[in-house]
């Protein structure tokens, strides 16, 4: 099986093997990545985290777990510009610096192994965590508690004061949605570093995960444009046109399609 096939096998398992699936994303970008060995190594990290946790009911251990991770060096990557390694789970396990989403994936796997209740929340711009039933969220980058006003402030810092906090921002994230978000992050980071082939690998995974948006097809179309693949670019632009509800965007897409050479078919 290819790394992509193994990725989807993990996702389709019952329950989904979210952490291992994210490791197979790393294997897609680096043939030397060995997810099986990384899973073995992870047990050592889980033991180190466990030894440092206080004697509390498991329902109260999520925040101490995140603080313990921080004590062990796990923190948000503040390198600028942000590098793809900040969104590759295997790299974050090695360097202990990463995006909130990847730190969250590590926390979720530790919590699963230690039977600590914890779920992911696909909050816009900054992935968060929550103990089911709690009245607050947790920042995977250190464990800070965030109440509704804190979430509103975080949202405004990311998107401006006109962005309204909605119930959909606080919903529990499904494994597929977390992995799709991770793939989008990697697509953008690889693109920002002019690694178009790696970005294309991530862009394809985003689409294969389903429910892709017009923006997802546009992102891959732009990569095909950079790689001089007009037929593939046309395919994605046409799909973006079908999905778009924005009349201005639809007009621009139609114009862009008109400038592409006719679709060539080889017999």
What is the chain-wise order of helices and strands? Answer: HHHHEHEHEEEEHHHHHH
Low-confidence stretches: none
Mean pLDDT equals 96
Characterize the overall form: globular
Secondary-structure-derived class: mainly alpha
Numbering strands along the chain, what is their spatial order in the largest sheet? 1-2
Radius of gyration: 20 Å
Number of strands: 6
Helical stretch tally: 12
Percentage of residues assigned to helices: 55-70%
Profile the largest sheet.
2 strands, parallel
- The proportion of strand residues reads 5-15%
Domain count: 2
Distance between the termini: 31 Å
InterPro entries: SirB1_N
Protein name: Transglutaminase family protein
Family: Belongs to the UPF0162 family.
Organism: Pseudomonas fungipugnans
Tell me what the structure shows:
With 267 residues, the protein is mainly α. It folds into two domains: 3-170, no CATH class; 175-258, Serine Threonine Protein Phosphatase 5, Tetratricopeptide repeat, CATH 1.25.40.10. The chain has twelve helices and six strands. The strands form three sheets. Strands 1-2 form a two-stranded parallel sheet. Strand 5 and strand 6 (145-146) form a beta hairpin. Helix 1 (3-12) runs antiparallel to helix 2 (18-29) and helix 11 runs antiparallel to helix 12. The longest helix has 18 residues, at 175-192. 39% of the residues are buried. The model has no long low-confidence stretch (mean pLDDT 96).
């Amino acid at each position: 099986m290819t790394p992509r096939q193994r990725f989807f096998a993990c996702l389709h398992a019952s329950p989904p093997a979210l952490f291992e699936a994210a490791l197979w994303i790393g294997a897609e970008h680096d043939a030397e990545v060995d997810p099986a060995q990384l899973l073995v190594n992870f047990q050592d990290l889980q033991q180190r985290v466990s030894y440092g946790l206080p004697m509390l009911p498991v329902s109260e251990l999520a925040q101490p777990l995140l603080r313990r991770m921080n004590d062990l060096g796990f923190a948000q990557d503040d390198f600028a510009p942000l590098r793809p390694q900040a969104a590759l789970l295997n790299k974050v396990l090695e360097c202990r610096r990463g995006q909130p989403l990847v730190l969250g994936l590590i926390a979720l796997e530790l919590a699963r192994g230690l039977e600590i209740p914890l779920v992911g929340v696909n909050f816009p711009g900054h992935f968060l965590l929550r103990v089911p039933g709690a009245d607050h969220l947790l920042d995977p980058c250190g464990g800070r508690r965030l109440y509704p006003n804190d979430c509103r402030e975080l949202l405004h810092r990311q998107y401006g004061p006109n962005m309204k906090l909605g119930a959909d921002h606080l919903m529990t994230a499904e494994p597929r949605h977390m992995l799709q978000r991770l793939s989008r992050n990697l697509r953008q980071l690889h693109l920002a570093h002019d690694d178009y082939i790696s970005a294309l690998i991530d862009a394809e995974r985003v689409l294969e995960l389903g429910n892709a948006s017009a923006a997802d097809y546009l992102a891959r179309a732009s990569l095909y444009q950079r790689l001089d693949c007009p037929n593939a670019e046309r395919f994605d632009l046409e799909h973006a046109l079908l999905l778009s509800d924005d009349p201005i965007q639809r007009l621009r897409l139609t114009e862009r399609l008109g400038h592409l050479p006719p679709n060539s078919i080889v017999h």
